[in-house]
């Protein structure tokens, strides 16, 4: 199979020392949307120390996962590989782009109580990208969460919303103890201006 050979070669290119080659390989894998490229992207997500590169690899993995059938994505979200599990959970928001998908939302809400913080973060990330008032209210309840990444995603969700108290909520995060939450709040304020 020609695609399998290409996917394998692109997966190997993700291990190269040149950042531009890794980026191009990830983009190509995301464009091909071959599920066989997911494992290589998960390894790349785990291996990089660069936040922008991790975000790019994550985005390309989500592009692959989100075109799979919902049932398969839910199965992937229960993978023993924590990185693949996180990527699948993040991709569940794609199933609610046009309108909320109750099954995807049910899975995401269940993941909010996972004992693994990275899984909770992935669930909040996905829920923050679904435009729905009930979900937003659930996320606002997490505004005092002890995890800064969860608080930053709450800011993102509120910033994207039409919530009547959005501006007040966002301004409250400007004084957060953690810089990434403050930065998210400032970005949200500038986008709302």
**Share of helix among residues?**
55-70%
Described by the principal axes of the CA atoms, the overall outline is globular
Q: Output mean pLDDT.
A: 96
- Structural class based on helices, strands and sheet pairing: mainly alpha
Number of helices: 12
What does the radius of gyration come to?
A: 17 Å
Strand-residue proportion? under 5%
E-strand count: 0
The N- and C-terminal alpha carbons lie at a distance of 51 Å
- Poorly predicted residue ranges: none
What can be said about this structure in brief?
The protein has 193 residues and is an all-alpha fold. It has 12 helices and no strands.
Commentary on this structure:
This protein has helices at 2-13, 19-32, 38-47, 51-65, 70-76, 82-91, 102-111, 117-127, 133-140, 148-159, 166-173, 179-192. The model has no long low-confidence stretch (mean pLDDT 96). The longest helix is centred in the first third of the chain and has 15 residues, at 51-65. The chain has 193 residues and is an all-alpha fold.
